Sequence to fold (528 residues):
Amino acid sequence: MATNRFFGLRKPVGRRQRLVSAFGIWAVFFGVWIFASSAGLVNDLLVPAPQKVFATTWDLFWERGFASDVMISISRVVGAFAMACAVAVPLGVLMGAFPAIEAVFAPFVSAWRYLPAPSFIPILLMWFGTGEAPKLALLFIGVIFFLITLIMDHTKNVREELVETALTLGAGRSTVVMKVVFPAVLPNIVTAMRQMLAMAWTYLVIAEIVASTTGIGAMMMRARRFLKTDEILSGIIVIGALGLIFDLLFALLHRWAFPYLRKS
Amino acid sequence: MTGQSTLQIRNVSKRFDLGRGRSVQAVQDISFDVEQNSICVLLGPSGCGKSTVLRMMAGLETPTEGEIVIGGRTVDGPGRDRGMVFQAYTSFDWLSVRKNVEFGMKINGLPASERKDRTAHFIDLVGLTKFADAYPSQLSGGMRQRVAIARTLANGPEVLLMDEPFGALDAETRWLMQELMINVAEQTSTTMVIVTHDLEEAIFLADKIVFLSSHPGRLKEEIVPQFKNGKRIADKEKVVKLDGYSDLEAHLMRLMRQEGRENE
Ligand SMILES: Nc1ncnc2c1ncn2[C@@H]1O[C@H](COP(=O)(O)OP(=O)(O)OP(=O)(O)O)[C@@H](O)[C@H]1O
Ligand SMILES: [Mg+2]
Fold:
């Protein structure tokens, strides 16, 4: 009976059970970590205790100006991502709406998608030096081609009947694209942006670890030189938290901007 | 029902190219007229090319041979003079019912005050005044189809083309919608072409039934339901009780069965 209730085959679990389960897995994780470090099972230098990591995080923010590094990282992600969207949204929609435009850009875009963005780091450094430009360029290259492809595919999936309805109401090509195709695909565009923003964070960390003196990744590389594992772990936690916050912001944006997707 | 024809279908054939040298003949050498202000029903077994004929009238497909003439001009692409209602739901989900109905008039540049009046009138005509500010996702299937009909009518087309518009509705809603269409035909003097494979619906709505034979679609028979004496009767129950109703139904059943057998 009880197993049926809490362990049903493909039955959704209740909110309470979800929360308890989620809390449980993290409790186990931190439990093992605390136990391992306090019992001396792991080298204190390589794996500091969690309470130490949290204390360090606090200290970094309030005593040592870590916030400015965090702000630099955020502005890099947001800046490069905004530039990528400014190109990818119109281009992706046009490619999805007009096969002639797809025929021109698709062969180009899909080739670039198979080139891992980090392989451009050496050349970007030679072209742009060590300022902000190479980091922004890496994020831009890393995100834009996937974003274009996703948006194009979503645009193609806009139902033909909607387009034909607009045509028989007297709409011309540009009206169909602006007034029907674009609003129809917009929720999916926001979802695609949400997915790609997660990828932008990945490239940010790579850029900052490889070639930067500022930002979260650079702080972690500095900490490595002084064997400060607690600071490295702090950096990881902050990156994770930021990723989560941005994801939540996008989820909120989606809910707020598309109320008509909710039933009742 | 003046004798003048609004739509002329002249020796129309349609062959679909399936690629790799294969093709399918969907419609072969069909000719018939649709009189002004009349309701013409296209009937025939599944796959006989009813939708194809309707889509060619709308300008969404081009005939391979022959031509379709509306008001003296050869159809060349879709236009606001021929509104279309599809079987699948075509509500613009991001717009309220009111904005949906207003859509065609807005893109065609009607002044706002006239738009407002017509929108209210046609929302009322399909009985959705209470839901004018709802989003389509909050409506039932039948209500969404009524939105589509109101949107098309509000745009003031000369010809209303409908492809199995009530196919997905339950019996009761279907019945209401059929009676609604009779009322609309009386009140707006719109010419209608309606595709269906429901015999009852065909007899009830039609001033003329155009029966297509199966694959490739040819004109089998043009039938005027004489028993209605050239009148439209908005009460379905009365029509069913008229002398001659069951004879016509039996005749259509025979045609359907014949075609079905030849198809095997
Ligand atoms: N876009 C298309 N490409 C290729 N073949 C098509 C296309 N549209 C229709 N056909 C073919 O043309 C024939 C007629 O199709 P159509 O949809 O007009 O029939 P229908 O009478 O509307 O059938 P139903 O009652 O099932 O809706 C079918 O054999 C169909 O496979
Ligand atoms: Mg059909």
Observations:
- The beta strands of chain B are 5-19, 22-35, 39-43, 65-70, 73-74, 82-85, 159-163, 191-195, 208-213, 218-223.
- The longest strand of chain B covers residues 5-19.
